[in-house]
Structure formats: structure tokens, C-alpha cells
Design a protein that fits this description.
Layout lengths: L1 H18 L10 E8 L3 H12 L3 E8 L2 H9 L5 E7 L5 H9 L13 H11 L3 H18 L3 E14 L34 E5 L18 H7 L5 E2 L5 E2 L5 E6 L5 E6 L4 E6 L2 E8 L2 H12 L16 E7 L2 H6 L7 H5 L9 E2 L12 E2 L1 E6 L6 H5 L9 H7 L37 E6 L3 E6 L15 E6 L3 H10 L4 E3 L6 H5 L4 E16 L10 H8 L4 H6 L26 H19 L1
Helix pairs in contact: 4-5, 5-6, 15-17
């Protein structure tokens, strides 16, 4: 009898113990699944440790590369995904449009918020000064009200090079834009024609060599070298025509019409026998109109990755009436005057036919971009790699499939990685307007050659003939390759290796605050615990940004959203364990109520 009583008491104690609150204040730890790429291993581990201490039972899955990571996203196999976003256009609209607009290209969380959509559109049409209050409101909806993302930290942009090999006066670091390989020269300039410039990147699977189908770390550097745009960004994110297809641009009063006067000395490159050759086809106004129209058309290609960036453009046209330029006012003068600065000859006539342009004799092509509403930020989007100019004739020649019935098993798109990969699939059909063209790729590298028709008789002609991008997945190995001289330039360097680089007398380390946010987005699909706003807020207030910065040796700074490096809204996030427990308790109560 006494034995039976003891067993009963033990059972009751066990039941009470299992159902009692833990130190975290929750009855049972909440299971949650976190994924990231290997490049964010440190952030993944910090997130796991933080959540473990705050009432969660996290499981982690570290994916080796971008393709594996996106595969898990598409399979909906995660609750929290750690990723990065770099506002490579340098403007705040880009920092929010693709990620948070209801139909944004990179809206992986499937956010659908009419108020947020309205505010994003409102801010896009405001002056920078006026937009600050609107962007602050946008941030509060994203973070305070809904916890759509979890900001971890803003990155410091880093790149390094071997100054004994590469001329340090020719290597610039750009806050948002990619390295401009065409500016770089070897110390021994005789090697520019005979030796490759060795650079590395971690990702070997290239999303697409079609500029509108890729917008990630696998392809941004490459496509930026291969396709000219009508404007570019300076090192500090200012709009420029340096290395672009335009001599000048002008903004008509009212901020809806944007005019660009084009150069006549850029030709498309093509590949013959794995060598870059001048196709003889000049890059002109009709190609600009075609390229920008397909960039803004969501249905122009399957898997269009960048259409929302260009939705502000209503019409792209060629101007043939010189009086339109003279009669259209800008805020300071007129379009003709602003387009005429430092041209080879004054504008005497305009033509719609590319072959008839003759700048030295005053014959030019002018393209006009008209926006749906006043939208000065369109210039930043026109500097993005997705606004790269492609050959209308070549795209139409290659893309003969029906987009609506596209079959990836049989249809070959312009820019498909397979077409430049050595082996049976090799059939390089690229036509590129930029400084370089990809001639071939294999498992170890992709080789770019200089476009022989890019501003050939100017100082903008690319200095080094060949750029070889080596695929080195392990970032520690990439640093070792830089130090040993196997590669000459390295960007996005592992934080704990920066001091090693600084101590190497042969290397130069360049750093600057970047526009890149490391953050986590949350799966709000049915069946995922993160659909519940209480869980999302519990995760949000668990995130101690100091811990993420610390594991990166202090190379980073606090952030609130993707807007943080661009607009100082004054909004901040502070980890708060009391709030974590408050939201976990609310989640448990809501769950218990729904089960009754």
C-alpha cells in the first residue's frame, strides 16, 4: 500500500514538474527552425544560442551555397532564414520595395500589407528630406507592429588587394556598387595584355547572365562588368555618367521626364572560339528602349527577378526633335543646355537610327524616360545592373520560346549558365555592352575578356584584358589565396581575417560603411510557428545586436531595417528579455484558447 502511494506521489510530482514554467517563463520551449548559408555561420550560431536562452528550442540547417539556400526557401522548409540585403542602388526605395511590397520580387515572407504598400509608394515620390518621416513610419510597421524581419547588424564593406601586383592607385572601393574591374591596372603595365586579373567569389552556380534575371551575389559582379547602363554610381552612391552609355542627363521640371544623350563609341562584344571580339553592332537608343521595356515587364522572361525595381517607368522613347530639348525646362535651365556640357561637338541634330549617330559632327541620340509619377529615385534604378543594356536583335534571336509555356527542361534562355559552361552544353550566345564578356566557365572559374569595342579610343577602355574569377567557397581559403598571391583582389572578407590582412605588408585593406544589412526574415506561411505575431516579436526582442557584432570582431554597427544606412530615422531596436517572455506567454495563452 505504501509503495503504491509513493508511486502515485512520484507520478504527480513528475506531472507538475513537466508542466511547470522553465527559467524562460514558458511551459515548453518553442520549436523553431533556422537556416542560413555557410557564409553566415557565425550569425546562425549566435541566433541559435540567443533563442535557446529565451524559451525556444532551435534547430539549425547551414546550407553550403546560395542555390541550396534558395532551394530551402522555395520548399518552405524554415521558420527563420538568415540572409543579407545590400542596397546596391544607394537609394532608400530599393531598400524596401523588393522586400516589403506585397508583390515584391524578394518578398519571401509573403508580406501583404496595404498600408505598407501605400507608404512605400508615398515615400518614393517625396524629396529626400520629406521622405524621412514616411520611411520612419514604414520602419515601425515592419519592426514594431509586425516584426516582419529581425535586424542583426549592418556590415562594414571590405576589400583587399596585393599592392605588389596591382597598382593601388587604380583600385577603388564603392559603397554600394561592385568593383569596377576595367579601372584596375597591374603595377607592371606590360602585364595588362598578357596576364589575368585574379579575383574570387564564393558562389560557383550563376543565377543568370541575363541582367534582369539575376540579382544576387553569384552574378552581380559579373553582370556589372558585362552590361553598360545609362548612368552609374560613384564610390559614395552619387549618380554619375562615368563609364556609362550617356555623356549627360537632364531632369525636366516636375521630375517626371529624364533625358539622356548617348555616346556613339560602344559596341557589343560577342564570343568566337572562346575569345572576345567586336560584333560590329553599335549600342544605341533602340537597344536602350528595348532593354528598359523588358526590365519593367514582369512577363518579359520567366523567373524575372528585378521587374519591381523598374515599375516606376511609364514610357521609354527616342527623342528626334531638337526643339523638344530646347523648349523643355529644368529647375536651372533647359534640357538642351544641360545635355550639351562637354560633348565632342554641340548637338546639331538628333537621330533614331543608331548607325547614323556621329557625335564628332554633332549628330546624337537622346532617350527619354517618363515615370508614372514624379520619381527622382528612378536614376538609382537605372544605375542597377538589371538596367544593363542588351542587344535587341540578339535577345530576339536567342529567346524564341513562348514565355507563358516556358519549359526549363528544353527551353534555353539568353544568359543561361549552361551556354557558357565548358562541355556539351557550351554555346556562348552572349552579346554584352559593357567592359567585359564571359567567354567560358567551368567548375573552378569563369573567365571574362575585355570588350574590344568599349570606348576603345578613350581612357575608359578597360586596362586589363582578362579577368579570371576563381570559385573559392571557403572564405578562409580565399584569404590564404590572397596572401599567397594566387588571387590579387578579394572582396567581402571574413571579419576575423581583417587584422591578418592589415598585418601583411604586401596587402592593402579598404573598408567603408556599407548599405548591407544582415537580417532574418520570418516564414509567415500556414503551419509555421512564426506566422504567429507573438512568436515573431519574441524572436525580435531576443536579438541582441551587440552579440552579432562582437562575433565579427566589431566590424559592424547596429541597424533597424534595410533603410538604416541610408536614412537616419532615429528608430532603434533594443533586446528585452521581459518582452520576450511577455510575447511567449501571450502565444501560449492564445494557443491554449484555440485548443479549447
Amino acid at each position: 500500500m505504501h509503495k503504491q502511494i509513493l508511486i502515485l506521489l512520484f507520478s504527480l510530482l513528475l506531472t507538475v514538474s513537466c508542466g511547470s514554467s522553465s527559467k524562460s517563463g514558458t511551459k515548453n520551449k518553442v520549436d523553431i527552425k533556422i537556416i542560413s548559408m555557410a557564409v553566415e555561420e557565425k550569425s546562425l550560431n549566435v541566433m541559435r544560442d540567443i533563442l535557446s536562452k529565451n524559451g525556444f528550442n532551435p534547430t539549425i540547417n547551414m546550407l553550403p551555397d546560395y542555390a541550396s539556400f534558395t532551394g530551402q526557401l522555395e520548399a518552405n522548409n524554415y521558420d527563420i532564414a538568415i540572409n543579407s540585403w545590400n542596397t546596391v542602388t544607394g537609394n532608400p526605395d530599393y531598400a524596401v520595395r523588393s522586400l516589403f511590397l506585397s508583390d515584391g520580387d524578394y518578398n519571401y515572407s509573403k508580406i501583404s500589407n496595404a498600408q505598407l504598400d501605400e507608404l512605400i509608394e508615398k515615400a518614393s515620390a517625396e524629396s529626400f528630406a520629406d521622405s524621412k518621416a514616411t520611411y520612419s513610419e514604414i520602419e515601425k510597421i515592419i519592426i514594431d507592429e509586425n516584426a516582419y524581419i529581425i535586424p542583426l547588424y549592418n556590415r562594414v564593406k571590405t576589400q583587399a588587394f596585393n599592392k605588389t601586383i596591382v597598382d593601388e592607385n587604380t583600385v577603388k572601393i564603392y559603397k554600394a556598387a561592385s568593383i569596377n574591374a576595367g579601372e584596375i591596372s597591374f603595377v607592371d603595365k606590360t602585364k595588362n595584355e598578357t596576364e589575368p586579373l585574379y579575383i574570387s567569389q564564393t558562389v560557383s552556380s550563376l543565377t543568370s547572365l541575363d541582367p534582369i534575371k539575376g540579382n544576387d551575389g553569384s552574378i552581380n559582379f559579373i553582370n556589372n562588368q558585362m552590361y553598360v547602363r545609362i548612368v552609374t554610381l560613384t564610390t559614395n552612391d552619387q549618380i554619375s555618367t562615368e563609364n556609362s552609355l550617356s555623356y549627360n542627363y537632364a531632369i525636366a521640371s516636375g521630375n517626371k521626364d529624364y533625358y539622356f544623350v548617348l555616346r556613339d563609341d560602344i559596341y557589343f562584344a560577342k564570343v568566337e572560339n572562346k575569345k572576345a571580339v567586336d560584333s560590329g553592332e553599335r549600342v544605341g537608343a533602340s537597344d536602350v528602349v528595348f532593354s528598359l521595356n523588358r526590365a519593367k515587364d514582369r512577363n518579359s522572361v520567366p523567373n524575372h527577378r528585378t521587374y519591381s525595381l523598374h515599375s516606376s517607368m511609364e514610357k521609354i522613347s527616342i527623342v528626334t526633335d531638337i526643339n523638344e530639348l530646347k523648349n523643355t525646362k529644368t529647375d536651372t535651365s533647359d534640357v538642351y543646355t544641360e545635355l550639351s556640357k562637354n560633348l565632342p561637338a554641340p548637338i546639331s541634330s538628333l537621330t533614331s537610327v543608331t548607325s547614323q549617330a556621329d557625335n564628332k559632327n554633332g549628330v546624337y541620340q537622346v532617350v527619354k524616360v517618363t515615370t508614372v509619377k514624379p520619381f527622382p529615385q528612378v536614376l538609382n534604378y537605372l544605375a542597377h545592373q538589371s538596367a544593363g543594356i542588351v542587344s535587341e536583335s540578339q535577345i530576339k534571336k536567342v529567346n524564341t520560346y513562348n514565355v507563358a509555356n516556358y519549359d526549363p527542361q528544353k527551353d534555353i534562355c539568353y544568359g543561361d549558365e549552361s551556354t557558357i559552361t565548358e562541355g556539351n552544353s557550351y554555346n556562348n550566345t552572349l552579346y554584352t555592352s559593357g567592359q567585359y564578356i564571359a567567354v567560358y566557365k567551368n567548375d573552378y572559374e569563369v573567365v571574362l575578356e575585355r570588350n574590344p569595342g568599349f570606348m576603345k579610343d578613350t581612357d575608359k577602355f578597360p586596362k586589363i584584358k582578362t579577368v579570371t574569377i576563381k570559385f573559392i567557397k571557403d572564405l578562409d581559403a580565399a584569404v590564404s589565396s590572397l596572401r599567397s598571391g594566387d588571387i590579387y583582389v578579394l572582396y567581402d572578407i571574413v571579419a576575423d581575417k581583417l587584422k591578418v590582412i592589415e598585418s601583411d605588408s604586401n596587402l592593402v585593406l579598404q573598408t567603408m560603411p556599407s548599405n548591407a544589412l544582415i537580417f532574418a526574415f520570418l516564414n509567415m506561411s500556414d503551419g509555421h510557428v512564426t506566422k504567429d505575431i507573438n512568436i515573431r516579436k519574441a524572436v525580435l526582442y531576443s536579438a541582441d545586436q551587440n552579440a552579432f557584432i562582437a562575433v565579427n570582431d566589431g566590424y559592424g554597427y547596429k541597424a533597424y531595417t534595410t533603410l538604416s544606412p541610408l536614412v537616419d530615422t532615429g528608430n532603434t531596436l533594443t533586446a528585452d528579455k521581459n518582452k520576450v517572455q511577455q510575447y511567449l506567454k501571450a502565444y501560449e495563452e492564445s494557443k491554449a484558447s484555440s485548443n479549447q
